[in-house]
Amino acid sequence: MTDKLNPDLEKRLRRQAKARVAFKIHLLVFIAVMVFIWVINVVVMWNVTPKAWYHWWALWPTLGWGLGVFLHGITTYAGTGMVEREYQKLRRKYGL
Question: Exposed, middle or buried, 96 (CB in 10 Å: 0-12/13-18/19+)?
Answer without folding.
Answer: exposed
